[in-house]
Amino acid sequence: MKFIFCLCLACFFGLSLSAQNWVNAGGTKIRSAKRVSIVPVGAAAKYYPDASYKLSVNGNIAAEEVLIQASGDWPDFVFLPSYSLIPLSEVEYFIKKHGSLPGIPSQADIDTKQHGLGEVHQAFLQKVEELTLYLIDSHERKAKLRGEIKTLERELGL
Question: Is residue 10 predicted with pLDDT exceeding 70?
Answer without folding.
Answer: no
